[in-house]
Amino acid sequence: MEADPNAPLIVEQLVKTYEGKPAVAGLSFALRRGECLGLLGPNGAGKTTTLRCCLGLARPDSGTIRLLGEPVPERGREARARTGVVPQFDNLDPDFTAAENLLVYGRYFGLPAATIHARIPALLDFAGLSSREKSSIRALSGGMKRRLMLARALVNDPELLVLDEPTTGLDPQARRLIWDGLRKLLAEGKTILLTTHYMDEAEHLCDRLVIVDSGRIIEEGSPRALIDAHFPVSPSALRPANLEDVFLKLTGHELRD
Hints:
Blueprint: E1 9-18, E2 21-30, E3 36-40, H1 47-54, E4 62-67, E5 70-72, H2 76-80, E6 83-86, H3 98-108, H4 113-126, H5 142-153, E7 160-164, H6 172-187, E8 191-195, H7 199-205, E9 208-213, E10 216-221, H8 223-230, H9 243-251
Parallel strand pairs: 3-8, 3-9, 6-7, 7-8
Antiparallel strand pairs: 1-2, 1-4, 4-5, 9-10
């Protein structure tokens, strides 16, 4: 089935190599507007490289990418202006307060200061940081910084959110807070591309999953469909199968470097 030409993200036959080794080897997928698509895979499977190519931060060796209707990397900057991104590692400015980080980031998009100031209370509330507006970044815990990163990704009111392991390091309460916020965004019509190593997170949030390994798609479908396909219900089963069982079946049980 051909991808909708108006889909928020279309990736076709994406190839990216590093030092002659393929990180992404012919990946093709598309997002549907208003869905949460999970890109899952073990360490080194090519997930982050795929996201970097999709955002125009890395140039692919071959293949085509259209992000919010724009060809990438040729018009990656224009596409990123309508996209919210949470990278895998925190890159907040330690010299600014929580609110100042949101303000400075919003200015990168050319937003008026008054517009950003008006958005800051709701963004901090979304991340459970309403009382931390004037806190230094150095005074925030790792989990608080991660939540602020997500709030920052929303400062430009993006059409699409690209989240690379957004809840890493969060405690269960904070993760639930973020899940509730992301569900609200989906209900409002946002589109989300998510990578995560938390299989329960993928089950709770994702409408559809693309599982990759060695830079290739090895399986895709809804969480429930994948579980049912790989672990049909058996009366003798000691416990119901879950997405982690599917993931380990497809990608193996051995540790990856």
